[in-house]
Amino acid sequence: MKAEIIAVGTELLMGQIANTNAQYLSRELAAIGIGVYYHTTVGDNPGRLKEAIAIARERADVIVFTGGLGPTQDDLTKDVIADVLGLRLVTHQPSLDKIEELFRSRGVAMVESNARQAALIEGGTPLPNDTGLAVGELLEAGGCCFVILPGPPKEMKPMFDRYAKPLLLAKLPGEPLHSRMLKFAGIGESSLEHRLIDLISAQRDPTIAPYASEGEVTIRLTTRAATPELAASKLDPVEAEIRSRLGEHLYANREAAIEEIVAELLKTRGETVAAAESCTGGLFASLLTDVPGSSAVFAGGVVCYTNAVKREMLGVPGRLLEGDGAPGAVSRETAASLAAGVRERLGSDWGVSVTGVAGPAEVEGKPVGLVYVGIAGPDGGGPEVWELKLSGNRETIKLRAAKSMLYRLWRRLTPSDAR
Amino acid sequence: MKAEIIAVGTELLMGQIANTNAQYLSRELAAIGIGVYYHTTVGDNPGRLKEAIAIARERADVIVFTGGLGPTQDDLTKDVIADVLGLRLVTHQPSLDKIEELFRSRGVAMVESNARQAALIEGGTPLPNDTGLAVGELLEAGGCCFVILPGPPKEMKPMFDRYAKPLLLAKLPGEPLHSRMLKFAGIGESSLEHRLIDLISAQRDPTIAPYASEGEVTIRLTTRAATPELAASKLDPVEAEIRSRLGEHLYANREAAIEEIVAELLKTRGETVAAAESCTGGLFASLLTDVPGSSAVFAGGVVCYTNAVKREMLGVPGRLLEGDGAPGAVSRETAASLAAGVRERLGSDWGVSVTGVAGPAEVEGKPVGLVYVGIAGPDGGGPEVWELKLSGNRETIKLRAAKSMLYRLWRRLTPSDAR
User: Fold this and answer.
1) Contact A383, A355 (CB under 8 A)
2) Which intervals hold domain MoaB/Mog (chains A, B) (predicted)?
3) What distance in Å separates the CA atoms of residue A89 and residue A80, rounded to the nearest whole number?
4) Which residues pair with A99 in a beta bridge?
5) CA angle, A68 as apex, A64 and A73 as ends, to 5°?
6) By the number of CB atoms within 10 A of the CB, which of A83, A149, A244, B16 ranks highest?
């Protein structure tokens, strides 16, 4: 079953808002096995909307409309669809009653145009609007299924989820779809694909879909099955195979950022972490403190941009930082000293550090993208340090360096036999 | 001139990302007087992309493509456009040199597919990619103008702004458009609009368009004029009128984040700032260090999530934090002590502090969203403190609190007669 999403609204074409409805609906439709082949956005213009509908009818079995159900003269989605199909608009009495009741309760006179929000194209199934006034509709006509939803996301999402989705599911042949997200860190999209290329090429059921966003890579496994248990029996072996190859990068098998998983691991272990950040400028701390409840595991951090702060707040010996033959602020030695220093000064179980060159200019003759990450832990021995060569602009290098700190800490917090 | 935006990428149709490129481009094209009539999104599928191009050529004078310029086999935007137009792909040597140089500098072997990013359709004008590898293109062919841009916003935006927009402007009839961005902090979109409603309602030339994103509000003034000087003579009086009403919020009259302006002001004054952050968790430091060259003005920061760190690293007296009748960590007194403490300990000219409740749960019986911002300066007198009541989820409260710190610091750094 092929779907197209048509968003109606001049505000989208003016760039006043982003079409997040298309993203939401695409994800929801994909999750129940309906492939979306096109998104179209068109303004509040009857002629151009008609043309868009004509094109969509040629190439889609389901057309999902969002927007243009409001009370103003610009809101004409239902009128145009009715016109295209040669059908009449009728009044949906329960919706009209609700609108009238609302105006009565507010003591405001209802204007005629508000009644437009209770209109239905004859022959369709009304989709109740639990969070607004305009009624939606699912209509089968002319060989196509028309799903008509309001534009505001807070009305559109519950209407789709509660009323449209069950009706669409009932129309679908076969068993429902089940998905599982596998989340990876410390590896780029291309090397991940390279190491799974045989699985990805041979995929049939479950399907294996990799995708990347800044700083992380995700794989979605999807299969059809009658029950979640039967789905798991098909998904588990694929996950196990991927884990056997990439276990040291696979930090979660559900939608979660690595900072959430690190916070959970620390909480379970009853441990805390502190951070000494030079080139990331506080980004590691900011990511970790985006996690609700992180105050239980994050002791705090020092953003040590200057050598003076590295020395005085974190006890890095001056001989490491400056002078003849000193390794310098951007070095393995300084990263180690920062990790140990922040752990000691803040009294945490773990100390994580980073020092490097975020750009745009080189520092101490060291190139942009050279970064050292250090970890000092409660398990004895000196701090561990990793050298990274990151690419990208200043913000990207900061993000990649902060995600590397999280990745290295995750590795240390995870017993190797659990991976 | 009618435009259509075609976004290419299966990840958009799967709902993995929102099509924010269409929003950005719509706004930018509208600002130079090019009306966008349709957005279309299509997957990485040559047949369907061809059909989308055929439809767009019927109804648009300019087609702006985003996405599908990468190195993988899925990236086929240029191939398909070349095929539709019956043109050949050629290699853009400067782009190929740049790609080869990058791989050489990393010591990695370049795979053949990476050369695809240097391809151009013959006859077009290359659009340099200052933040990535894939070269873009502007091509006039078959009665239509094709603008081909990469998908990642951090590559697409600078390419459009620096290279595509000037070429499009040169094609437009009439006098060129001139825009000026007015940037505001410390005020919400609705109260800003309220205070300018008479100007916005009566606007003709220049046009006055407000829009908001998280943590800041922008107004764009636009006019047509033969020269920048003539444009300025029309824009200056409107800016002056707005400044007379909202000068204490208007931090820049060009596209700039408040952290950039704060960094510039500090640099000019030869001063430094240090930050003590509790509820923002390092976000202030991270924003400020996103600015290239911020190392000259940012001494460093302490993320003082726990009372122990507030006491030991920043010298906040224990009696403020805990015990009978203590004001607590989230208080005016603690904010003042943190600002003074971080200024002293890090030896900076300015100390900025924040303590508050980012949520989801209340702290010390204090509600989510209660935040105190403190500033200690070189100009004598005790630290100044402001109480804020912020709304939103945890991340939004963090961002609004960090932007408030920047706003308050900006006010202190700006002589009142300069506003």
Assistant:
1) no
2) 4-170
3) 10
4) none
5) 155
6) A149
| pLDDT for B214 | 67
pLDDT of residue B120: 97
In A, minimum Cα distance to B41 occurs at: A39
Residue A102 clears pLDDT 60, i.e. is over it: yes
> Which positions in chain B touch A17 (Cβ < 8 Å)?
23
CA angle A257, A269, A246 (to 5 degrees): 45
DSSP label at residue A111:
P
Interface test with A, best of B27, B101, B289 (most A CBs within 10 A): B289
Spatial CA neighbour of A302 closest among A343, A331, A260, A333: A343
For chain A, list the domains and their CATH numbers.
2-171 (3.40.980.10), 177-252 (3.30.70.2860), 258-418 (3.90.950.20)
What residues of B are in contact with residue A393 (Cβ under 8 Å)? 131, 154
For the segment A7-28, the average pLDDT, to the nearest whole number, is: 91
Direct distance between the N- and C-terminal alpha carbons of chain A, in angstroms, rounded to an integer = 39
Q: Which residues of A touch B285 (CB under 8 A)?
A: 277, 281-282, 285-286, 303
Q: Taking a C-beta distance cutoff of 8 angstroms, is the pair A273, A409 a contact? A: yes
Q: Give yes or no for a contact between B362 and B368, defined as CB atoms under 8 angstroms apart.
A: yes
Q: Check if the beta carbon of residue A78 is closer than 8 Å to that of residue A89.
A: yes
How close, in Å, is residue A269 to chain B by CA atoms? 19
Q: Residue B398, SS3? A: helix
Does the beta-carbon distance from B41 to A22 stay under 8 Å? yes
Is the complex ipTM higher than 0.90? no
B209: number of Cβ within 10 Å: 18
A309-337 pLDDT, tens per residue? 999 999 999 999 998 999 999 999 999 99
**Which of A74-78, A83-87, A288-292 is the least confident region?**
A74-78
What are the structure tokens assigned to A115, written together?
């009644």
Closest CA in chain B for residue A310: B300
Q: Return all residues near B249 (Cβ < 8 A) that are at least 6 apart.
A: B184, B185, B186, B187, B192
Tens digits of residue pLDDT in B24-48 = 999 899 888 898 999 999 999 999 9
Nearest to A300 among B43, B309, B346 (CB): B309
Q: Are B276 and B306 in contact, with CB atoms under 8 Å apart?
A: no
Query: Rounded to an integer, what distance in angstroms lies between the CA atom of residue A147 and that of residue B226?
Result: 49
| Whole-angstrom distance, CA of residue A63 vs CA of residue B381 | 66
CA-wise closest residue to B67 among B127, B156, B138: B156
Cβ contact, residue pair B26, A48, below 8 Å? no
Question: In the numeric block, which tokens belong to residue B371?
Answer: 């935040």
Contact A257, A238 (CB under 8 A): no
| Each residue's pLDDT tens digit, A260-305 | 999 999 999 999 999 999 999 999 999 999 999 999 999 999 999 9
